[in-house]
Amino acid sequence: MCKSEIDKLKTSDNYVKIFYKYISRVTNSLSTLYKTYCFAFQKRRFCTVKVALLHCKTYAFATSNRNYRFSYKLSLQNLGYFFAFSR
Question: Which superkingdom heads the taxonomic lineage of this protein's source (predicted)?
Answer without folding.
Answer: Bacteria
